[in-house]
Amino acid sequence: MKPTLLILAAGMGSRYGGLKQVDPIGVNGEAIIEYSVFDAIRAGFGKVVFVIREDIEQAFKDKFANKFEQKIDIQYVYQAADSPIGGITEFPERLKPWGTAHAVLVAKDVITEPFAVINADDYYGISAFRSMSNFLTNDCTPDTYSMIGYVLHKTLSDHGSVNRGVCAMNDQNHLLDIVERLKIERIDGIPQYLGEDDQRYPLSDQDLVSMNFFGFHPNIFDTMESMFIQFVKDNWEKPKAEFFIPLVVSQMIESGAMKMVVIPNDEQWFGVTYKEDKEPVQKAFAILTEEGKYPPSLW
Q1: Is the pTM of this model over 0.90?
Q2: Pairing outcome for strands 4-8 and 47-52
């Protein structure tokens, strides 16, 4: 059975100032999503599931309709703050959905095979999809998952600080924890994050970080659902609380419910966190096309 790619595309894009999921980036106006789908197809994925908001459905489908639906099975699911999960029908009032792990949960009914999760607005690299497809096809089990680890210095932005989950691993490359480091930026040539005490602390350029490229067995849905039900109860009066994938992963590792293999990757990550990121990312895709890594027209 071929693995599935789950693309989280329901974000607001507040720092970017627009709907970056459909913004033209490639040499022929392709969105970053299209490169991910292209890479997934040639890496052997059999289905793509998009998590979107109902209010962007028309813009999303106008951009991508008929581009790749003849090349791979495409499905859509919808995330909202009150998307029913695990029998929960009543939610506290809040403006935003509940975060990335909640986005994964809304796809529970359409995924029954091992699957990967990525962000819609990140470029992960050709080899990352091949490595993940190979893992999901050959090594994924009910208690063995994976994630692609990126070298920190290849994930920073020149136009503002970023948050990154820094990976702690054992000598078998099994993840021990993901430590969220905030407001990372290069200062005096060294990547530094802002601690809770408002002091700056250094990181290594070679630290592996999570960019939300995970590989899961479908049995994670039941565990994630139970955790989400409890999370809603615990955060009923916290309208900004978010149920993130790393939170689920960390709790499952701590409980011994699973192990997660970190697959190192040396690809250059591209993303459009800020509007100023768009031009350099456009140039990067032009270079990749000139080098023959992508055809002049994807579709």
Answers
A1: yes
A2: parallel
Q: What are phi and psi of 212, to 5 degrees?
A: 65, 40
The residue type at 129: F
236 and 242 in contact (C-beta within 8 Å)? no
Contact of 64 with 34, CB cutoff 8 Å: yes
161 by Cβ neighbours in 10 Å (0-12 / 13-18 / 19+) ranks as: middle
Question: Smallest Cα–Cα separation from 261: which of 143, 97, 92?
Answer: 143
Q: What are the helix and strand counts (H, E) for the chain?
A: 7, 13
Residue recorded with tokens 């924890």: 177
- What size, in residues, is the chain? 299
Q: For domain 4-290, give its CATH number from 3.40.50.11270, 3.90.550.10, 3.30.530.20, 1.20.1530.20.
A: 3.90.550.10
Of residues 11, 8, 12, 20, the one with CA closest to residue 275: 20
Q: Tell me the two tokens of residue 46.
A: 């059999």
CA dist., res. 117 & res. 246, Å (int): 12
Could you read off the pLDDT of 89-131 as tens digits, one per residue? 788 888 888 899 999 999 999 999 999 999 998 999 999 999 9
How far apart are the C-alpha atoms of 215 and 238, rounded to whole Å? 30
For residues 23 and 279, give the distance between their C-alpha atoms in angstroms, rounded to a whole number: 12
Do the bridges between strand 259-265 and strand 144-151 make them parallel or antiparallel, or are there none, so unpaired? parallel
172 is written with which tokens? 């078998």
260's CB contacts (< 8 A; 6+ apart) are: 144, 145, 146, 147, 174, 175, 249, 253
